[in-house]
Sequence to fold (1313 residues):
Amino acid sequence: DLSNSSIVTLASELAVSLDALPLNEIPAAPELTEEDARDLDALCLAKSHFELKEYDRAAYFLRGCRSQKAYFLYMYSRYLSGEKKKDDETVDSLGPLEKGQVRNEALRELRVELSKKHSAGELDGFALYLYGVVLRKLDLLKEAVEIFVAATHALPLHWGSWLELCNLITNIEMLKSLSLPECWVRDFFMAHMFTELQMIKEALQKYQSLMEAGFAKSTYIISQIAVAYHNIRDIDQALYLFNELREQDPFRIENMDTFSNLLYVRSMKPELSYLAHNLVEIDKYRVETCCVIGNYYSLRSQHEKAALYFQRALKLNPRCLGAWTLMGHEYMEMKNTSAAIQAYRHAIEVNKRDYRAWYGLGQTYEILKMPFYSLYYYRKAHHLRPNDSRMLVALGECYEKLSQQVEAKKCYWRAYSVGDVERMALLKLAKLHEQLNESDDAAQCYIIYIQDIFSCGEQLEHAEVSTALRYLGQYYFKNKLYDEASLCAQRCCDYNDAREEGKALLRQISAVREQGEPSSTDLSLACVFNPLINTTTPVRRASPLDLSSVTP
Amino acid sequence: MASVHESLYFNPMMTNGVVHANIFGIKDWVTPYKIAVLVLLHEMSTTKPMALLDRRRLNKLILPLQQGPDLTLEQFLKIVEECCLRMVNAVKLRLLLMADGELQDMEHFFTILPNAFSDSEAFKTSVVGLFMRQMLLAYNKLSFSQVYKLYKSLQQYCHHGNQPELSALPAEDMELTSNEDPSADHIDKDELDTASLHQSELRSEGITRGPLSQKQAEYFLARQAYLLKNDENKAMSPAKLQDELNNILKFNPDFAEAHYLSYLNSIRVQDIYISTHSLLHYFDRLILSGGEGKSNGDEGYGRSLRYAVLNLATLHCRFGHYQQADLALQEAIRIAQEANDHVCLQHCLSWLYTLEQLKGSDSVVLTEDSVKIAAHFCLPYLASLGIQSLVKQGAKQGMPANKLLDALRGTDIMHWKQSLSELIEISLAQTTSIWRMYGKSTMARQQAQLLLNMNSLEPVNFSVQQNNTEAFAVALCHLAELHAEQGLYAVVSDILKHLKQQFPPHTQHAKLWMLCDLKIQFEKAMNDGKYHLAEPHVTAISALNSTEGLYRKAQLLKALNRTSEASKILQQLQQQCEKSKNIEMTIRVMLASAELHWDSSGFATALPLLLKALSLSRQHNLQSLTSETLLHLAFTQLMLGIPEQALVLVQDVLESVLAHGSLIDKGRALLLAARCQMALAGAAAQEHRLTALEQAVHTLDEAAVYFSQLDCKERMRDIHYLQARLHHTLGNIAQRNKCSMLFRLLDQELPSSGMTVVSHL
Fold:
């Protein structure tokens, strides 16, 4: 079917999700109406012109047609013609300020005609979609939302309208206030929307139920779930899903930039290299490909080349948000702070809600030794991702540099409470307490830190268990809890950098025990073996460390 | 935003991650409007015989036409028409010929354009010459399609404005236009169809209205920024200005200066959120342009970083976030120190002492350092700002007056040499305040008038006669208060009206006149004995200035005879003032407490307080307070039964009170003198007694004049009572009866106060 297929090129997403449908119930093709039959020749001709991107020509041959499909194609060609001219125009606009003024001249005419037809109720789903797009381009967002909702009602299976709607919805309240058609596509939309609004849990639920409902093989859903896992930084799950996705759909380029981000975070060089080479073979002039290559070079510390590839990605699509941010990161690595700031600012201009760009700006200024200045940017980032520990840790570090210890402590503690990704918050908090001579609090933090490190199982390169153990050993020693102290000291000996101190502490303990009164050790031993009896110790005092389960 | 970035699509100019905003280095380009201006210039230079007056008017027109935003043809022609009727026809004819002809006509115009100027008075480097050459350059750089586009837009420009006329023109012309833009006609018709469409169309019309070239935008920004600084009322309203800025930023997001103006604009409406955002955005952008513009790239870049933090500090300071400001300032100082930037450090230092002052701590040492170093690095502005700040602190701490005024005069000489008009204004306002504090009302008045009558020294003066800076507000407030003291309430209300106009309530310095207005009203209500009217003013005053509010509250309570509450507040106030070293207020509080002691007949206990107040006020050269204290002392002595001493004191102080004091002070001093005279007369021998009593009557008469000017009924009642008594003693029955009748009338009118006549000053 002609106009349907023209739309499918618009929205390959729909095709992807339709592929997954069980093939037993193909809907019968709709009957051709009389008008359709009359317009068939013109439509075929116009369609060929349209596909050759001769939009004006296509529109010209369609001007007399009356059928809905022909009308849509007619209007759509006019719209695209305007867009194309606009793009051409920008190259030789008269001056820098005028550049922004180059507009799609066809928009206003289209709008007037469409609104007339719309008020007469003569628009079908596709035409409504086009009307919505025109309105959005004219910055009439409110009206555009209404029209897109109407378009989804008229033609729920057209994913394009849903996607446009998705771009216009800014918060959950707005989403809830819309009356959307009851259709299975709606679930896709909701899931997509939840991902956009960072409500990952809800999104995952939706996708799960969709998979159970029969879309299990849909690569679209798999990729979306993988992206969702990426957003909540569940790297293993996301990696697993992406690998599966590449098996099912080896020539897929979409979402591969996200995949490369994951590989980058995990420093999986060979995999990233393989992915990059593979993608270049498929299509080297794609934004995603350029981003993957950029990441690849970045991982190899060839930052100039990385920046070059991100620039190429931006040339292919200047609205590619991720590339701006990643380019900012590259410039940061190259110590070109001014270029980094510009890149981040561009990213923010494209999307004000891009927390990574705000965070990057903050980092840039922190590198420039302006912690107070960077506070603003970190706060912005934190505002956008309230439950991301990285921003909180960054905020805490800034406050620490400004010697605002109270705020710093709050930030670190909050970072720990929201689930610390890098497991640095507690260590920093402990060190802060240590500096402020709040030994009880410091010890408490170190204890939780050690338990935390060991319970998560994986080996972290920057883990400073030895520092914690060393401090705890000294702390117990000072508080005359010699058994715990010696335990810590023994653990210290497992680490290269703390071995000497551990041994020294052990010697000290044995010396004290030899000359000191034996009764105190008895008492503390009793405390260790019967922690339940131990009610006399002050509340603030750190409880003795239970290291029996610890396996370093 | 979207379209802007799509326009980067083929941008080959992106190097090193930086997109060059201005690719060709041209700040201006040819628009149909510019062609119209060029046509006007061309016509002006070709038509030689022209009336002198017309020429002058046209010449005056050229600059605003070049710098202003693009006008429609109608507007343009109308403006020209106002200057020279003949010219407008020539211009119109020429433009229409060009528009109705062919592309060739426009090209021809640009080829003959330089010829017309070659032998005329327009030099190559003159404003007109530069403009013309710029236009030619811009035109010559246009590509084929751009020229065609320009011509199309010229046709549209000429015919869009002339539509009503077109209907009268022959049909062939109509055809031309209808070929060109059927869309415009189409839309016009449709706009009438649906109201909602019409509205949104208007909106989009509004958005596209101001296509400013970079030159025009820069001019616009400079002008608005200047107005914001000097006369906010003449600048655009905050909302409108923000719209305009958004418009500029939409077309060119890299236009950093617009962000800065947006920062200034949002500070106007006290919007910390947007102002912080804009400020940081500005510096983010500036850092880039600064980095590449300077040959010593790193220097310019680091410099803007330092000033970025410093500006952030000032922002927080402005909003009263002193802790934040402190942190930012320290950061700025640290960076500046690392970079060895002494100028920036100086700016930081001057902000540091300002901040310390705002926080209420002593910063004399810091300020002195600042002045010294600023002088060393030849930064006259900062140095004299520091001196002014030092003078302010010195005045508060009782430095010798001659030293202070000497310092001010010294800096004034420098200001005039360097034409630092802003500082001259501040200096004059400061002198006014100092004279006022010392109680020399005439000198204060004179200085205030000097400031108000001064012409602005600013080189670019956008028809701003009087700036609305803080200095002017201060001077005007002083004037208002001085006039109120003399009972000239009509003048006061005029001044306040002017203040309200110049400094609308939302602006930064509006609090000054609000407080002044409230104080005057409070005083008036208190003098009239309308305490219920004074009460709401107290609350309002405390909202603006808590110390002042407390003091006024105590005064009100005292007047209402709620002495215990009043004394509690006074004690509290005393502690506060001693902490903040507010000498003036301390003395006032002492006087008020002494008055409280009088109420409980503790005249002897009031003495030490008064003596302390006297020594304090003498030490700080506060003449009006000194005389006030002396009057208090004299009254106490009178009450303690030593009228001779009291009279001597009063007579000592009478001269300065009559010269500088307010009306009420004058009246009170005379009343006190009369009472001393009465008391003395009672003790004197018989033969002197009569003359003494007559003298007292005379003094009372004088006092009555002042009180009646103020319409201060309570005091009038006292005077009538005393006069009646005196006349009775003197045996003037008729006079006595008249006075007692007046007394009775007033007594009936006023609520009977619990106080006896004698127990207050």
